[in-house]
Amino acid sequence: MAPSRLAFFREFGLLFTDPPGIDPEYNRILEISKKQQNEAVQELERMWTLYKPYADPDFNVKIKEDYWPRIWELNLGIAFLGRKLKLITKNAAKGPDFLIDENGQHIYIEAICPTKGRDKQPDTIEELSSEVYKTIDLDKIEIRIQSAISEKFNKYFKKKDSFPGKENDPYVIAISASRLPNANFNFCGDKYMNLIRAVVPVGKSASNYDIRRNIIFNRHWELKVANTKMSGSQVPKDYFINDKYSRISGILYCACDYPVSTENIGLDTIYLMKNPFAKNKIEGNLGFKKINIEITDSTFSYTRE
């Protein structure tokens, strides 16, 4: 890093500084920043200078303890700023990660970066190996996404009066699937189906085949009301049809590794999926691409745009 740029970053406070933290990924990048110029590290520092005024006061401490969730938060912050959304500055670490003022509507957003689970546990997502043929267990990916949604929902709505906003303020959960092995693989041609299948009771894509006429007809999604853990317990797939979760206004979802750039952050990788039965609906799409879902008593369909 050139001295002039280093001086610029230090004026705002560097993100990667001694002493090292307890997160190995943070420490790895810290060592890189010490030994050589690295465009990715410089870009992260640049992003930090832009986002720092809106971050939790202890952000640069927490990133040393838990790197990936903080980087997801940083990416989201830059994505919001890049879309000219009005972020309201936080004075304390309490409350959701982001508060956006969108044309007078206050939108609270909580970020989460779920992982594959603890090693050697029954429901942990297995890494694929080039040496061994394995079947990708999509249910395990969905269960991790469901766990993330439940965690962030329960944080503010399990107990009465825990949500810091008003009764009619939208609440959005922002999920990064970058730490979920195999989540960025296309399922039925669409890697975002992992999210859709986690929140609505649909399973595999199916169709009927007429042998005599050699035609395929009645393409549809099979009904699947829950995922089953290895313990046998059921995880319902009803987040977007159960009135209990109607305070979830929508989900922001990124299915791939973070595109670290202040120029194109989130343009093609972060999607907003609104809850069609949300109590507090979001006006517009916050500048993101959309996943539209339509649910009736007997049909389900979705589009991306």
Low-pLDDT runs of 5+ residues are 1-12
Secondary structure: number of strands: 12
Q: Sketch the topology as an H/E string, one letter per element.
A: HHHHHEEEHEHEEEEEEEE
Mean pLDDT: 81
Q: Provide the number of structural domains.
A: 2
Largest sheet: 8 strands, mixed
Identify the strand order in the major beta sheet: 1-2-3-4-9-10-11-12
Rg estimate, integer Å: 21 Å
End-to-end C-alpha gap: 39 Å
Number of helices: 7
Principal-axes geometry comes out as: globular
Structural class of the secondary structure composition?
alpha/beta
Beta-strand content estimate: 15-25%
Helix content: 25-40%
Give a brief description.
This protein is of the alpha/beta class and 305 residues long.
Detailed description of the structure:
This protein has seven helices and twelve strands. With 305 residues, it is of the alpha/beta class. Helix content is 28%, strand content 22%. The two termini are 39 Å apart. Residues 1-12 have low confidence and may be disordered. Helix 3 packs across helix 5 (67-82). It has helices at residues 3-12, 24-35, 39-51, 59-65, 67-82, 138-157, 193-199; strands at 86-87, 98-102, 105-112, 171-176, 202-210, 215-223, 226-228, 234-236, 250-254, 270-274, 289-295, 300-304. The strands form three sheets. An eight-stranded mixed beta sheet has the order 1-2-3-4-9-10-11-12, sandwiched between helices. Strands 5-6 form a two-stranded antiparallel sheet. It has two domains: 1-65, no CATH class; 76-304, no CATH class.
